[in-house]
Design brief:
Residues 835-862 are annotated as: Disordered. Keywords: ATP-binding, Nucleotide-binding. By secondary structure, the protein is mainly α. Helices cover 62% and strands 4% of the residues. Strands 2-3-4-1-5 form a 5-stranded parallel β-sheet, sandwiched between helices. The protein is elongated, with a radius of gyration of 44 Å. The relative contact order is 0.04.
């Protein structure tokens, strides 16, 4: 297949070596790996089939100075008669190699071969030609020693009339060919040159089709052509790798066979081709020949010639390898010490030439440890650029390299940058580097250093005492901040806002702003943090006027960064803890999208957890579950530190609301740090766990969690229902336990503490209070709750309130009104992904007094959801088969359900409709029935 497109020349060549009508001199010229060696082998096969004798030799660069080396190979060919071979060796050994060797004269190719040697070889060849045609084949003739070429030229000229054919294979790119090859052989009358070019794309496709079992796809042919540049040797190696099932081609990798072929391709060129190719592979960008020559410390003209040759050979395109696999093979074949030395030389030259730091830094890292004084500043600058482009992995690689070579004066700043970058990928990584920072008892930090930055990280991981000590030192009038103003507003306000958000009790009396200035006109050092005081005060005290305006201003002005993460999170929390869920969702979605685009798993995870909690409060359980699980998958629970309570609380609440109690338990089994219960996240976690206990009918455990949450909130001075409605959960627990007075006390208290502008929280408080009232008083309170919840977006709480209202109406003998509310409740619950309200709401456990309990006993015959659906369809007249088809269950399952229904209701099938109506079930309403028919 490698001869595709060369049929005419090959036909002529085959005619020469099969008819043997006369002598000839043929030069097959082509680039390395174009197939000239295979063609020479084919010519020998043609000659042998026609009765000719082929004597073969392969010249070598290492034997170029060996006199008569090629001629010796020719006359040691296996097909040569033994007598002729011995005569040839006698001439070459005794009469040739040992008697005429002398130093070559300058400007002369080599000394002349003695005449008696030439005549002796001529006699041997004449004897051979009397018996049959002879073909002398010399591959890589550009490396042939001059004395052998002189002898061959002598033989050709003396035997022009005989059937002697001399065929040479030479590299067209080589500059080392002898003058004999470039001129004397060209004068022969029967001289012919055949040029071999790389295969076309069609030729490569035909070659692939012949070597692969299946028809090669279009993209494979394209990849094959681009990687091999049409050179048969490289294409064959590519195909060999493709046939190996253990290897799959990708742009930046090279298979084993292809790598070997690439190296063979380069090594067959003259020096400095290999060295230049390695340097180009290491540089991986177009550079001037002057710079490339400087890297290799060679002559610029020689370097330019090599680049031109490789470009002409289609290996290079615009100064780079045409295919990544070719470059990968060159790099793989370069010894590691050579690569490192080349990178070091490149880094030095690029720095001296004033190249950008990002280009120099990559070579510094690849070179290993470079001790030049300019190395660390270059790595720091490149790391800043990488971080600005959100290439965190590259930034970390540069800073780690800087850490290895920096001095003590530089270390603090380098490590501080490194910690910030590593935090974006994994917050647990910072714990490994805390020993490199000053503690509160150490000496003051070096001027210009950033030693105390990790206070926010310490708070995240629950190391509160150390964080507070550092912040005290920074804010002290006698500390570094007061004297040198080393700490910016972000250095103090960032940890301060983290503290206010996470540890409201500990930061209640701390001012999370930079030390006061004594200038007559205050200067705001960081306008992005305007309003930080108001937000922090809201988080530790609550009820701060203007907090939403301050939070919105901060969110509008600020871009997500290491220093602004805490302020933006605190601003977002201000909306969440004021029941402004729609605005909170919008800002959180924007931050979440930015975090995802900027490739920070930590940021992404944090805002996914925040969004999950907002989804929970909006009643969007499926979305809450997905976001919380995504947050926990982005970084490990250990990396979450005390913040782990946020995603865990969200996923537990979502799964519990959906009725997936086993799934919720899985997340409750995740270990959490003890310090989490000192934080706001601990409050959310306790209430989520309490909700789980309620759903699993463990009211004592639930009450313990809710009351523990309440004690913490009271101790911290943030006992606000809008932060966490622990009283509502406690009301449900008390009702399950039959303790109506305690339930009523907490229900009234929660309503009294709820602000009128917090519509969702107030609606929940009204619902909780209604559960403690008698039926007559309950309806008005629930209607007010429904009205508030309809306007705030809390769909699931609205569904629960409607379900409670429907049950209350049913108890008062208003089944039509009850059915209307029940249908709305069911539809809303399904939108939220929750269980049916009558199953997931906890307030139906206590309906407010003896009459409520009796009524509940009458209206709840103990049928499961599945049994209710089957009962409704059976009562409507559907057959068992029709019921199985509508509910997507087997007929046997239908029969089993009906058996249990009849036993529980103590009726027959004919009495089923009346029994359901007597129990006040809404299933007989046609619209309700259509809803049930869709459930499975």
């Amino acid at each position: 297949m490698m001869w595709v497109g060369r049929e005419d020349e090959l036909a002529t060549l085959k005619g020469l070596f099969t008819s043997f009508s006369g002598g000839s001199v043929v030069v097959i010229s082509g680039g390395i790996a174009t197939g000239k060696t295979a063609l020479l082998r084919t010519v020998g096969e043609w000659a042998a089939e026609s009765g000719g004798l082929t004597l073969s030799a392969v010249a070598s660069r290492s034997e170029r100075d060996l006199p008569l080396g090629v001629l010796e190979q020719l006359f040691r060919s296996p097909g040569l008669p033994r007598e002729s071979a011995e005569r040839a060796m006698q001439w070459l050994d005794a009469g040739g190699l040992n008697t005429w060797a002398r130093e070559p004269v300058p400007g002369e190719d080599a000394v002349q071969v003695p005449t008696h040697v030439l005549r002796g070889m001529l006699d041997i060849l004449r004897d051979l030609l009397e018996e049959r045609p002879v073909v002398l084949s010399v591959d890589d003739a550009h490396h042939a020693d001059v004395s052998s070429l002189q002898c061959l030229l002598y033989l050709v000229r003396r035997l022009r009339g005989a059937c002697l054919h001399v065929i040479f294979g030479e590299c067209s790119h080589s500059k080392g060919a002898s003058a004999l090859m470039r001129s004397e052989f060209l004068r022969e009358p029967l001289f012919r040159r055949i040029r071999l070019e790389p295969l076309s794309r069609a030729g490569v496709a035909e070659m692939a089709a012949a070597h692969l079992d299946d028809r090669p796809p279009h993209d494979l042919v394209t990849e094959l052509y681009e990687a091999s540049a049409g050179y048969p040797m490289l294409a064959q190696a590519f195909l060999d790798d493709c046939r190996d099932g253990s290897f799959r081609w990708s742009g930046g990798m090279a298979g084993e066979a292809f790598s070997r072929s690439v190296l063979a391709f380069l090594y067959r060129h003259d020096s400095p081709v290999v060295e230049v190719a390695r340097a180009i592979a290491v540089l991986n960008k177009p550079v001037s020949p002057l710079l490339l020559a400087g890297v290799l410390d060679i002559d610029v003209d020689a370097c330019s010639q090599v680049v031109h040759m490789l470009t002409t050979a289609r290996v290079l395109v615009n100064g780079r390898f045409r295919h990544e696999a070719f470059q990968a093979a060159v790099l793989e074949g370069t010894p590691s010490n050579t690569r490192q030395a080349t990178h070091a030389r490149i880094a030095d030259l690029l720095h001296n030439e004033g190249f950008p730091a990002v280009e120099v830094a990559a070579h510094i890292v690849a070179a290993g440890r470079l001790g030049a004084p300019w190395v660390v500043p270059i790595l720091q600058e490149a790391a800043e650029h990488a971080l600005a482009d959100d290439d965190v992995t590259t930034c970390i690689r540069y800073l780690r390299a800087a850490c290895q070579v920096c001095d003590e004066r530089q270390r603090a700043a380098v490590v501080s940058m490194l910690v910030d970058a590593e935090w974006r990928l994994d917050p647990a990584a910072v714990l490994r580097r805390l020993h490199e920072f000053c503690t509160a008892g150490d000496a003051e930090p070096t001027e210009g250093s950033d030693n105390f930055i990790p206070a926010s990280y310490l708070l995240w991981h629950g190391r509160v005492r150390e964080a507070l000590a550092i912040l005290d030192l920074l804010a002290s009038d006698h500390g570094a901040a007061a004297e040198c103003e080393k700490a910016s507003t972000v250095d103090l306000d960032g940890p301060g806002l983290w503290g206010a958000y996470l540890y409201p009790a500990l930061f209640k009396h701390r001012r999370p702003v930079s030390p006061p200035r004594h200038d007559p006109i205050p200067v705001l050092m960081n306008p992005e943090l305007q309003g930080a005081d108001v937000i922090a005060a809201e988080l530790v005290h609550g009820k701060r006027p203007g907090v939403l305006a301050a939070a919105e201003g901060m969110l509008q002005r600020s871009r997500l960064s290491e220093r602004m993460l805490a302020p933006l999170t605190a601003a977002l929390a201000a909306f969440t803890y004021n029941d402004r869920l729609r605005e909170a969702a919008g800002w959180c979605d924007a931050l979440l999208a930015e975090a995802a685009v900027r490739r920070s798993p930590t940021w992404h995870a944090l805002f996914a957890a925040e969004r999950a909690m907002i989804h929970v409060r909006q009643g969007e359980l499926q979305a809450a579950e997905e976001e919380a699980k995504a947050a926990l998958s982005l970084i490990s629970p250990r990396s979450w530190g005390v913040m782990v309570g946020l995603p865990l609380a969200s996923v537990v609440l979502a799964l519990t609301g959906k009725g997936d109690l086993e799934g919720a338990l899985t997340y409750l089994d995740v270990p959490v740090p003890e310090a989490m219960f000192q934080t706001r996240m601990g409050l959310h976690y306790l209430c989520a766990r309490g909700r789980y206990h309620l759903a699993t009918n463990h009211p004592h455990a639930a009450l313990s969690d809710f009351l523990a949450c309440g004690r913490l909130m009271s101790d911290w001075g943030i006992d606000l229902p809008v932060v966490e409605t622990w009283r509502g959960g406690a009301v449900e627990a008390y009702l399950q336990l039959g303790d109506l007075p305690e339930a009523r006390l907490l229900g009234d208290e929660q309503l009294r503490l709820t602000e009128s502008e917090h519509l969702r929280t107030r609606g929940m408080a009204l619902r909780a209070q209604a559960a403690t009232l008698d039926v007559a008083a309950r309806i008005a309170v629930l209607e007010e709750a429904v009205g508030l919840l309809q306007g705030c977006g809390g769909k699931l709480e609205l569904a629960y309130s409607l379900a409670d209202l429907g049950r209350a109406c049913l108890l008062l003998g208003e089944p039509k009104r009850a059915r209307k509310h029940a249908r709305k409740a069911l539809a809303l619950a399904r939108q939220c992904g929750a269980k049916a309200p009558d199953q997931s709401s906890g307030f139906d456990a206590g309906l407010g007094g003896p009459e409520g309990a009796a009524a509940q006993a009458d209206t709840n015959p103990g049928l499961s959801d599945a049994e209710r659906r089957v009962a409704a369809l059976a009562a409507a007249g559907y057959t068992n088969r029709e019921i199985s088809e509508k509910l997507f269950i087997t007929i046997s399952t239908v029969e089993q359900h009906l058996t249990r229904i009849y036993r529980k209701l103590n009726v027959t099938r004919f009495e089923l409709q009346d029994a359901l109506q007597d129990n006040g079930a809404e299933v007989m309403d046609p619209e309700w029935l259509r809803i049930l028919e869709k459930c499975s």
